[in-house]
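Handout, tutorial session.
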Amino acid sequence: MKIVSPGLLVALLTSPGAAAAGPAGGPGLPPHRFALIVAENEPQGGALTPLRYADDDGLRYAEFLRGTGAEVELLTVLDDETQRRAPGAAAGTRPPTRGELAAAMARLNAGIERARSAGLTVDFYFVFAGHGEAGPNGEGRMHLRDGTLSRADLLSLVVAPSKADFNHLVIDACHAQALVFNRGPAGADDGYRPDDYRNAIARYLDAQDLRAFPNTGAILASTAGRETHEWEVFGAGIFSHEVRSGLAGVADVNGDGAVEYSELAAYVSAANDAIVDPAARPQIVFQPPARDRNRPLLAYTDGPSSFLRIPRGFTGRAWLEDARGNRYADFHGSGEAPIVVALADAPFYFLRRDQDEARIDPPRPGVVDEARLSWRRREVATRGALNETFETKLFSRPFGPAFYAGYVSSAGHVPAIAQSTPTLPVTAETSLTLGETGGRFGVWPHVTAGAALVLGGLATWQGLAAMDDHDRFSRALTETGVGDRALADRIEREQAMAWGFGAAGLATAGAAALLYLLEARDGGDVAVAPAPGGLVAGGRF
């Protein structure tokens, strides 16, 4: 799902589902995905303040995972603001109650069994966005519409019944111990210090609970104190926005088209690395499935058919906003490697950087290269009230292979491995219409190659004409003993033109080869598949 150059590619796969198999998806097949997403703004009781964007996070998680082909159950109640921004979205939701959770799990498990009986590997996602707290016995619990869901309930009602090959838990919740952490205001200070969280959570994850489920991984976030960790600029919870950004491709540090736990954790850590206030800085804790610690959270090459490519050398903070005005993904390029972002099914996007922006009209299927976008000065400043800490510190640390290597080494985690080399689902017809694609030299490598072919053809034509006229001259000289002076002059002209066209063709072919080489070395767009450390070139002339 990486990059394609217009004119270079003649034929690629023609449907989004035709991409190469994702990790562990079975022979020739990506893993099938199911997801249960629970999002609740309203807390139980009066000690906690209602959240504003948990329902938005739930909806965006659902849209994102459906874009990868997942079958999704969304339990949430969308508020008026969200329903105005996304008309019709509420029709696909159910309220986040214990009864609906159990019914949703039953429906998902039925689908999981059908998929597994068909020989498919299955990944199951449980995502929670909302309030959490520590109960009277110190056990973490999450707030639903009709009560709470304890840590034991989560394991017994969701994790244990799951019939999937692998389970992935993504928890973005309020202040709680062990499994559920601070997202919104806490009712009272329980005395936790910032450095308590990582050790406490790690002990919990490594103790009796998840050890019983070696096919289950989790990525969780928490902060100390009672600061809110939703942000109006994102229109979402900060951790949830970072998770979706990373899963869209920007956390894929080795370029294999999949995001592993360690890659996502390193990306989220880099995004928050410059925040020094312990009350505002999330503490990220993750544990991949013990059965396979390199099991990806998601292969973002599965499903989406449109992509944005950021070439190697791009540095600085940038973000994507979709047609509804939603912040889609944020990143801070280190310039070390290309970045590829899977684009959801929106009619257009804006890529923004500092005070400039570029409109993206994604081809479907197709790839848009940032190097060929038309940048302009932004007409409207970023909307909403900005928190100075988040505005200046979030995503201020560049993320790339160097940061990832240091993160994994210092923490002693299992490093990511190259999972696969999926092929972009881009057709030749689409690639020829990508007016905004191309590397540093745009279409010139292809134009130069075409000119070399034309010059070679002209040289061949003139050479054949000179040979034909020479035969005529020789026959006339043999028969009459007199040479045709005009014909001799034409033969000389034809030979000179053949040599001239030939020399020009060779020079032009050499220039084309040099441009293609420089394009590839510069991280250009002649590649069609991701590979560790870069891109693999493909296609044919």
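The second record follows below. Compare its token runs with those of the first.
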Amino acid sequence: MPSHAPPEKGPLVNFAGQISRFTGIIYLFMETNAHRNRKSIARGLFVYLGSAWVFIEALNFLIDKYYWNSRVLDILIILVIFGLPAMLIYLWFNNKFPTKAIILHSVNLVIALTVITLGLIKPNLIDPSQIRLLKFQDQQEKLAISVRSLAILPFSNYTETKNQESLVAGLHDALIGEFGQIGGIRVISKTSTLPYANSQKTIREIASELKVDAIIETSVLSLDRGIRIQVKLINASPEMQLWTRNFDSSIDNVMDLYNQIVKNIANEIHLALTPHEKSSLENAQLVNPEAYRAYLEGKFQSELLTESGFQNALKSFQRSLEVDSTFAPAYGGMAFAWIGALQMRHVPVAQAIPEIYKNNLRALALDPDYPEAQYINGLMSFQAEWDWQKSEAAFRKAIEGNPNHVLSHAFFSHVLLTQKRFEEAFEEIDKAVDLDPGNPLVLSLYGVILWHHGDLDRAIEVAKTVQEMNAFSPLLYVILDASYYHQGDYRGSIEVMERRYGNDLDGFKEVAVAFDRDGYQTAMKRLAELLRDQTQTYAFYIALYYNRAGMVDEAIRWLQIVIENHDPDASYAFLPQEFSNLRADPRYIALARKMNLPI
């Protein structure tokens, strides 16, 4: 639960305070004038303020609707504000221009031009356009304080550079990552927000489906010589725009742009930041524009999970590093691309593992606190090294750096699962599902925990949810097969295997025939035999199917092969559901001890 505290005074409050003090000085100066016309001043003040309010609201409407540059509105509002003392001076001196009036007008004009210049030089310092919100201030402030979770929708591209898909997608991903480092608020991950790009659903509907209090809409208005992003914070129920602002930055200062957005929204919702979070937001590093663009292109390509995407990603990351060899995210991106290629079987284990370690170690050397690098460190310690303490420490450090890092929560839950710390495992996977409810991988990892915990009906339910997403998830078949098998539904198990192996495994029809003719154990023996030519990919499952066939010695022999090959699935062989019939076998016990796992 995030802690909330009264916000520090923002630019608008300070700006308004300065204007009020200046107006007070003008009033005192005019108080010495003997010729006062109070009735005309009151009438003029009423007309001026009413007209100004209508003018500001109308201009705001046009800017929001047509995505005009809000800097124009800021300048006009400043002129309107400083026009008020100009009008008062004019009326106070009976529409004449004595020396005192000229001096006051001159001072007023100089201050107005100074404020306008300051606003142009430092656009995030003064934001007078927010005065339009005064009429809703009380209601909006109450709604803002209640915001404890939000989703950042994919960026809308309103620039003339429509071919910058990877850059716009990267900006969206990066902003979610920066926001995720704030521990006091839950931020939905990118995977679950992508389906809402160009969605016709209402803000309330999107927020309800993602279970968040507010939505951030973002639009890219410029990408040529700099970046201009319009950000809107919208409360879900009732649906009300709480805050809107344009942010301008050069590409080399884009990290500070993200930080400015995060700080402004944190201030708007009265979110109390820790000293570490404040320090992180105040110390953004400059990046080389060419290196950063190449890095974003690499991330975009690697997330396609295709072989060509993997090759293109490596080229982009390499180009980024050629420009800036000290850019840690590019090394982290390279390691992540190799992990994706390995998981999708685009490259062999022997080629991928050294590349993952080499690039991730370089990322950690440049930035030991980089959450992505710590996540990869935890993942490799878990799946390749079987160093459970090192893995737990790395995942905890990744989560400390980014409390909303979905995959760190998800895979950390499986580290805890292998240690049979079920309660803690559910806590972590629940966090991952809350942060990314539309991610098929996260849901699949959740289903695996349910299956090993013995909650087979819920495991099947989660697997079918993944199935309805039409997303590729190898774990989907594992969960369904295992759940049906342990429920005694052997035909259901065979049907799942047919969907998993039927198109790619020559001779699978023999498995179905063996099942119909001789039963499940014979079918499992035949399936294990068919998979023996693909040891690198299916060693764990060969051991599993031999065990289901009642061939204990063969199952043990293949488990030894699994451990010798450092198969990433090895640790799951010692959980309660699978291989439970071997728990008293000294050979099985010895293998568990070799991996430092509880029986």
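Points raised in discussion: The radius of gyration is 31 Å.
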